[in-house]
Amino acid sequence: EPEVTQTPSHQVTQMGQEVILRCVPISNHLYFYWYRQILGQKVEFLVSFYNNEISEKSEIFDDQFSVERPDGSNFTLKIRSTKLEDSAMYFCASSALIGRGGGDEQFFGPGTRLTVL
Amino acid sequence: QKEVEQNSGPLSVPEGAIASLNCTYSDRGSQSFFWYRQYSGKSPELIMFIYSNGDKEDGRFTAQLNKASQYVSLLIRDSQPSDSATYLCASGETSGSRLTFGEGTQLTVNP
Fold first, then answer.
1. Could you say which residues from 52 to 111 on chain A have a Cβ atom under 8 Å away from some Cβ of chain B?
2. Among A6, A34, A109, B56, which residue has the least CB neighbours within 10 Å?
3. pLDDT single digits (tens) A56-68
4. What are the DSSP calls for B9-70, one per residue?
């Protein structure tokens, strides 16, 4: 069964460093998302991406964050200058364009645990 | 602020019982509703989605939606110890829109 994959599974970085988190969405899906979950807290939306551009972003997704689809398979989240409070699990998700008038099912990858020291 | 609220739990049921999980949402523009299961340290796994008022059954799971009351529920019949996890309720507006998640309800099924 197709699935979303993410690398690395765990990333440790120093405060102020740049990190890039990578995702390979399900191959026939057209919408891509990043969410994060701080330990013990709810899953929070960061950004959605469709047709090679950001379609929606949350207030968390400030100028320190960027997303890119550098080729036909990868989808990346870059954090330019990490802060301690960026420590969280980052999930990539993807969904197909079905257009039944509701939000289409989003399938999540296994996540990247980011630890900022 | 669009919010999804879940009964706080934790919820503990004996093996074989019915587990009932509840969720309310504040955004009347929400069109679709999802139940995810999340094991500790793992990612959310989609188990049910529902778009229309009424019940939707899939195996041991039944999702119920009442848009007038802005209420969603998940029933798990014949609960198994492997169902022990945190259950996340989420809502979405349109195709490709963000999902708004609740805090989750931790379910423990005791053998």
1. 55-56, 58, 89, 91, 95, 97-111
2. B56
3. 999 999 999 999 9
4. --EEEETTSPEEEEEEE--TT--EEEEEEE-TTS--EEEEEE-SSEEEEETTEEEEEETTTT
